[in-house]
Amino acid sequence: MKAQPRLRNQVALVTGGSSGIGVGVCLALAADGAKVVVNYHSDEEGADKTVAAIEKIGGEAYAVRADVSKEPEVLAMFEDIKKRYGTLHILVSNSGIQKDASFLDMTLDEWNAVLNVNLTGQFLCAREAAREFVKRGVQPEISKAAGKIICMSSVHEVIPWAGHVNYATSKGGIMLMMKSMAQELAPHKVRVNSIGPGAIQTPINEEAWGTKKALNKLLELIPYGRIGQPDDIGEVAAWLASDESDYVTGTTLFADGGMTLYPGFADNG
Ligand code: NAD
After folding, report:
1. Is 62 among the residues known to form the active site?
2. What is the pLDDT of residues 139-197, one digit of tens each?
3. If both were cysteines, with which of 101, 197, 222, 250 could 257 make a disulfide (CB 3.0 to 4.6 Å apart)?
4. Which of 21, 77, 157 to mutate to test the pocket of ligand 1 (most atoms within 8 A of CB)?
5. Domain extent listing, the chain
């Protein structure tokens, strides 16, 4: 736990908290004093490990199962959180999947699966969180904002990605969903932002870092010269959730080691 935790007395829901970036976000929010609800889809053991890691640093957490793309399951998860903690202050919509295929071969199932989890899942969770934030309003002793929504986007909200049209579409969609929500919810003192991770070392992209050859090729796209870690994203999420970023809404904070800086132009293009 940090010496001066910024998220004390706040409840945070992190979707997909059973692996990868979600674990880094859960731990960073807990280290900053938030009580963390660790959502998982099928990996109960992973979620239990995240809860145990949070308890080990003196934090509080519990795990709750829900498929974020299914409305009844999302509603039940929010009911569960209300029963357990009374309210919610922070949502990190992190769940996401890839189902890669060349555009010519992409099936409707592959398209729908990615859009359902990555975009509809974020819509459903953000809507439920926003309803709770607006109903409850600001609690000045807890935070300057009534609530904070953080969408896990990607550098692929701006970088086109051949072979991953469904994924890039979902992330581009998150960008305007986030900005439109931010515009609509600002008068209610709800802040909405995205994080745009670059390449972070997690199970979703193991083929990009699993061998030395693949990693070297990936590093050509990262001016800062290293692959990112879940902690890198956790720290950004904790800041965006805290009052230190109280004037920040409707923006994507890229945490990508410079991947969006067009590294191909570094030597004059
Ligand atoms: P990951 O595969 O480790 O995590 C994805 C998480 O989503 C898992 O916890 C999984 O259980 C959860 N999930 C999948 N389907 C779900 C469903 N239907 N309902 C609820 N949860 C579900 O990969 P990750 O890299 O940690 O990805 C986390 C987020 O970060 C994703 O949105 C991903 O698009 C984004 N991202 C990752 C990278 C990267 O380089 N790793 C880069 C940019 C963006």
Report:
1. no
2. 999 999 999 999 999 999 999 999 999 999 999 999 999 999 999 999 999 999 999 99
3. 222
4. 21
5. 11-265
